[in-house]
Amino acid sequence: MSRGLLIKRSAMPLVESAPDLDLLIERAVQNSIRLLDDAAVRRLIEMGSKEPTPDSEESLGAAIDARSPSPSDVHETPQNEPGRVIAPIKPIDIAPPPRPHGLDHYSLQDFPLQAKDVDTEIDIHFDITGNSVTEGRLIDMQSCFMDRLSKIRKMIVESSIPRLPRRPIRVSEAWAERKSRNSSATEVTLIGLVEFKRFGKNGDIQFAIEDESGSVECVLYSKPEWEKPEYRYHPVKDGLLDDDVLGVTGYFTESGRLRATDLHRPGLEYREKTRAGSHAAVSVAFLSDIHVGSKTFLAPQWEKMIQWFKEDPLAKNIRYFVMTGDGVDGIGIYPGQERHLQIKDLYKQYGELARMVEALPDWVDTIILPGNHDAVRPAEPQPALDPEVQQDYSDVTFAGNPSDFSLHGVRVLAYHGVSISDFVSSLRSVTFEHPERAMMAMLERRHLAPSWGGKTPLSPEPEDSMVIQTIPDIFVTGHVHGHHASQYKGTHVIHSSTWQNQTDYQRMLGFQPRPCILTIVNLHTHAVASIPFV
Fold first, then answer.
1. Distance CA 316, CA 362 (A)
2. Domain-wise residue ranges, the chain
3. Contact, 426 vs 242, CB < 8 A?
4. Residue 324 pLDDT > 70, yes or no?
5. 360 in helix, strand or coil?
6. Dist. CA 327–CA 356, nearest whole Å
7. Is the omega angle on the peptide bond into residue 112 within 30 degrees of 0, that is, cis?
8. Alpha-helix runs per DSSP H in 124-207
9. What pLDDT sits at residue 93?
10. Exposed, middle or buried: residue 184 (CB in 10 Å: 0-12, 13-18, 19+)?
């Protein structure tokens, strides 16, 4: 590919049988052959079995080279002699052709092992399935928020970059001392939950901070330096999320409000990813929002992927297949859904999904999470699919949403991603076209779904299990029907592609999904490959 050559799949055995692959490539380049089909490869191999004749292309090229002066000869021609001085011709660097959807190229050398030679190693660290204890009482809600505040407050206090300017105190203690804390020389630091927020006329932001002892109104005024592009994610420019845990440093004004001079979040440092051992250099593939049962489900593309699994060398390296929710389109999810359904029975939808998963090769282990279209409670965290649904599947691991697990020691945080809608509505930098920005904001805030009462229904568990207590090596979501794969401070940020075409609702919004792209991450090399099937 680096020399601009394309190889037909049928010609691969001939290419592999060539006695000298480098020489074959050089001959192809010299003879301006760009497509290596069977006939071209045979012709290139035969060139080595006979001496070049005066009429051959090699001799002709050599004769031309002999007659043509080199660039150095041309420049050494004295100026007083007749003739033209020709500028040297720079060699043309032939770039590999672009891939569909503009996806990055990958190398098979980064995906070395056969998955069938490696035993399964899945270690689940968190799954709400069977562990939900909430009764929905007020005390459960209070416990959930206090647990969130306690965990993230500890992260902010212990964060090394940047350190807090002073020891944080409770809101009630600061309020009692407000008359003596009325200048920049007597600032105070508080940590609490964002109670409300609104933008002022001059670009400032007004909000309240609440902890277990009370609440206080704050105002953060815009500064000239915050107009610079590097501050586009600053709360004054970007916004705040309700119920976000935030540290505030400032002093009290005569009106009793805290004039904030700085805000604090848990420091997110760059970290080296954990690597599986070389003996487990296998890969995990990610997909989401298949929506089996919908009329817009892309069945031919699924069959194309199954065929790819059986034939492509890269597929032989895939040991795990993670589906992050909405495997089926469900029943009664939104008004008028029936007219958009191809399969109108929920159990038949899951039966069809089971048949599709069964078609994957034997060496692939599948992990399935639920989403907002699945037959589980809508409140997050969601338990795994019901055992009555699971009985149609074989060799499948069912987990809740979100789920925190390790594959050969590599930490994976998988979340369907409904809360992305809350981030889109609250932060100016986040859009449905760029869901990865919401994922980065989740990592920065150490929480998957901070806002209570927004677009994400939350279950008030006594322990807030939506807090990100351990930064993952791979963070994957879905829900928005886009596709993205990048790195953020040492973490793979993967937004899984959908297997559903554009819906009527998306067409009305002018949103174009990016369907049928399988994202693959090798657990040892951490190389990423995105394979399109459209």
1. 11
2. 6-76, 160-264, 280-532
3. yes
4. yes
5. coil
6. 11
7. no
8. 138-158, 171-176
9. 75
10. exposed
119 residue type, one letter: D
Whether residue 44 contacts residue 58, with contact meaning beta carbons closer than 8 Å, is answered with no
Mean pLDDT score, 331-342: 92
What's at 497, amino acid-wise? S
Give start and end residues of each alpha helix (H) in 21-79. 21-30, 38-47, 57-67, 71-75
pLDDT of residue 234: 79
| The overall pTM is greater than 0.90 | no
The amino acid at 94: I
CATH number at 160-264: 2.40.50.140
Q: Which residue has the higher pLDDT, 444 or 224?
A: 444
**Do the Cβ atoms of 517 and 501 come closer than 8 Å?**
no
User: Residue 125: enclosing H or E segment and its boundaries?
Assistant: strand 122-126
In Å, how far are 115, 124, 320, 364 from 119, measured between CA atoms? 8, 16, 11, 11
Backbone conformation region of residue 167, classed left if phi is above 0, alpha if psi is from -120 to 50, else beta: beta
The CATH number of 280-532 is 3.60.21.50
Q: 82-109 b/e with 16+ CB inside 10 Å = b?
A: eeeeeeeeeeeeeeeeeeeeebeebeee
Domains 160-264 and 280-532 share a fold: no
Residue 299's pLDDT band (boundaries 50, 70, 90)? very high
Of 357, 401, 393, residue with least CA distance to 376: 401
Band of residue 160 on the pLDDT scale cut at 50, 70, 90: low
Q: Quote the DSSP letter at residue 10.
A: G
- Backbone φ and ψ of 227, nearest 5°: -80, -10
Counting other chains too, the contacts that 295-299 makes at CB distance below 8 Å and 24 or more residues apart are 295/340, 295/341, 295/342, 296/340, 296/500, 296/501, 296/502, 296/503, 297/329, 297/342, 297/499, 297/500, 297/501, 298/499, 298/500, 298/501, 298/515, 298/516, 298/534
What does the pLDDT average to over 287-291? 97
pLDDT digits (tens, 9 = 90+) for 247-278: 999 999 998 999 999 999 998 889 899 999 99
